[in-house]
Design a protein that fits this description.
- With about 260 residues, the chain is α+β, with helices and mostly antiparallel strands.
- It folds into 2 domains: about 150 residues, Jelly Rolls, CATH 2.60.120; about 90 residues, Arc Repressor Mutant, subunit A (Orthogonal Bundle), CATH 1.10.10.
- The protein is built from 10 helices and 10 strands.
- A hairpin with a 2-residue loop joins strand 3 and strand 4.
- The longest helix has 19 residues.
- It is globular, with a radius of gyration of 18 Å.
Length: about 260
């Protein structure tokens, strides 16, 4: 659990008034709103995240939003973290998935709040771990809507999955529509139409999303911002920073030697 937590990205953001382009993660997104509001778009529906609510996105779920004086904390736990906890609870190795995107449950809110507070204050790891398990087990027991035995991102979206694997293998390559369509054995017209219908974003936005995620992973492993930007396929650090801000609403300010983004 300690290793999983150290490899997990955390966010703490105050009074955001930003727009967030549609994007996705290969992890869960779990967070809470302290004040203000986020009008969030998830699975072609609109929700309001306001004070004392919690937010959950499943891996691969496309989402975005518009913030108004929004203060919040987020973290991005892996599929492995939640499936391991699900197994501890139910003695079955399955991946929990959540239908509710915004959860108005103050018990869950304060359980997550106490965990975030312990993590950010760098309290004893046993205390932080206990609060994490308490919060996530409450979420799993009360809000799991379905489970999957074998979960791979985009499994139910064939064209997207094929493109995802191809892009992951060649993240710094200069992609064009001919190459992407050929990889999917489709014409450019049909590839664009099917891809947008399956995922809700364009192939270009999809590639930018993956490059930002790749750069974040490199930075967390000690690679400098400039080097991570180049290795992830951006032309330079400012190109990475601009695209990071479109997805997250702020410029990347990583705490040195940490997995925290402020």
């Amino acid at each position: 659990m300690k290793k999983l937590l150290l490899n997990t990205t955390f966010e703490s953001v105050r009074l955001s008034n930003d727009n967030f382009s549609k994007h996705f993660h290969d992890t869960y997104t779990i967070g809470i709103t302290y004040e203000g509001m986020l009008k969030t778009f998830n699975s072609n529906q609109t929700y309001d995240s306001y004070e004392f609510t919690s937010r959950v996105n499943n891996p691969g779920e496309v989402h975005g939003g518009v913030a108004t004086s929004w203060s919040h904390a987020n973290f991005y736990p892996s599929v492995e973290m939640l499936s391991s906890l699900y197994e501890d609870i139910y003695f079955e190795k399955k991946v929990p998935l959540f239908e509710k995107h915004i959860i108005n449950d103050k018990f869950l809110f304060f359980k997550l709040h106490k965990f975030f507070l312990s993590f950010y204050k760098n309290e004893d790891f046993l205390q932080t771990q206990t609060l994490l398990i308490d919060a996530l087990s409450y979420l799993i027991i009360n809000y799991t809507s379905q489970t999957k035995k074998d979960f791979h991102i985009f499994d139910n979206k064939k064209v997207v999955k094929r493109s995802y694997e191809f892009i992951q293998d060649c993240i710094d390559y200069e992609f064009d529509l001919d190459i992407l369509a050929s990889n999917a054995n489709m014409s450019k017209f049909h590839f664009l139409r099917v891809f947008k219908n399956e995922l809700g974003i364009t192939p270009h936005n999809f590639i930018i999303n993956e490059r930002v995620n790749k750069a974040i992973k490199l930075i967390k492993n000690g690679v400098s911002l400039s080097q991570a930007s180049m290795q992830a396929g951006f032309s330079d650090q400012s190109h990475f920073t601009r695209n990071f801000k479109k997805l997250y609403g702020y410029t990347p300010a990583f705490v040195k030697n940490s997995n925290i983004v402020l």
